[in-house]
Amino acid sequence: MRIEEVMRASELIRGLPIEARDVDFEVTGLMHDSRRVKAGDLFVALVGERFDGRAFVGEARERGAVGVLSVGEAPAGFEGPWLRTGDPRAMMAPLSARLHEHPDRRLLMVGVTGTNGKSTVCALVASILSHAKLPAATIGTLGFQFGELSASSPRTTPEATDLYPLLTRVIEDGGRAAVMEVSSHALALERATSLEFDVAVFTNLSRDHFDFHRGFEDYFAAKRRLFAQLKPAGRAVVNLDDPYGRELRDQITREGREVLTFGEGSGADVSVIEAGLSIDRTTARLQTPRGELALSSSLRGRFNLLNVLAAVAVGEALALAPKSIGAGIEALGPVVGRLEPVDCGQPFPAFIDYAHTDAALRASLGSLREIASGRKIVCVFGCGGDRDPGKRALMGQVVGELADLPIVTSDNPRREDPMQIIAAVKEGLERSGNQAYRVVPDRREAIRRAVSVADEGWVVLVAGKGHEQGQEVGSEVRQLSDHQELKRALEAK
Fold this sequence. Notes:
It is a single chain. The chain is an alpha/beta fold. It folds into three domains: 7-85, Udp-n-acetylmuramoylalanyl-d-glutamate--2,6- Diaminopimelate Ligase, Chain: A, domain 1; 103-331, UDP-N-acetylmuramoyl-L-alanine:D-glutamate ligase (3-Layer(aba) Sandwich); 340-492, Protein-Tyrosine Phosphatase, Chain A (Alpha-Beta Complex), CATH 3.90.190. It has 15 helices and 25 strands. The strands form six sheets. Strands 10-9-8-11-7-12-13-14 form an eight-stranded mixed β-sheet, with helices on both faces. A six-stranded mixed β-sheet has the order 18-19-23-20-21-22, with helices on both faces. It has a four-stranded parallel β-sheet with strand order 3-4-5-6. Strand 9 and strand 10 form a beta hairpin. The radius of gyration is 24 Å and the shape is globular.
């Protein structure tokens, strides 16, 4: 369901770098996808690397678009209002914010950015806010969730034309807060430019998306933009264990804004006094600016302890009751696809995880190595096609170093040859010195092979896809769920 406002085009574009002759018409929605245009929409025709939205203005008009916003002049034969701007994508956020009357200003907004941990931190913060009587929606890689409402999303951070109606819906359904992942793509492509946040969180930064970003500094600069979008009284929450987190803390402090830090070390505002890490759960006693806090969580591993610290720091930044913070963390079960246990009564632990970078694999495997009580680890993993090829050997090396039996397989090859991707991963496996690795290109078979070798002395980790339900091969998305395949293999055994 789409929540629609009504505004005259002249008011909607006022003060923005948009040229138009005919603006005497009403707009009830904004849409960038011609297939989803509804009557009353202003169609934003984006010009990208693969598609030119101006080729679809006829379809948009047939579906009821009242006008078109794009670059350049209207195509020959086009009839109707044509609004021209130099960067239509950059206009989607301010136009959507204005049309929907800035729902972010009526909600408590928490934005989370970083390479890893965003989904888990968002889930923890939303649980804390709900226990503090602030019903919160989550928006991110796992889609949109608020109470009984849910929707999937092809992007971690939705386009502004989708995001603002979601925030409006949260308010209309009684929500008080929204906790959202804000990706580097969204920040660089200005999907979230007009949003204002009460708290902005930085989890960490490691190599990812180098097919899009020009290196670490460009990647960091994109993440940094989130902290320029804090409300006047907003707080920054930053991971002090991460070198880029320390740089971010210093930058924000120099600007005169207060930063609340978290980390395992004693120098952070929210830090660990003692922790108990097991294969089943995590317990900890934390130091916070308001005193000690004891808590228990079903999330496993040291990297999840850091996610818990981030969520506690958000609670501290918002001055929420310590009881609500602890209760919210304890109430949250395993997050879908994030070191999620799959239990079919087998005599060994088995997990799926979304880890698809070398740093994420190091965190997951390192955590399992720490909590698995001497068990050996078999890890099924692969690397996606049409993405940063430089991380493939790095991933192979990490798994070779930390898993006893690496099984390299296919993972969303997209338009690339899966065997060429696997060959690059094998270079890293060879560098690790681990000669026990196996190559099983068929992902289902690889998962079955992992389960077949496991017994009481092993842990099984299937990494890469997490919550995803499909395998991208060429232009197709073929049904494939690591959770379902692991469950079937365990049940068969």
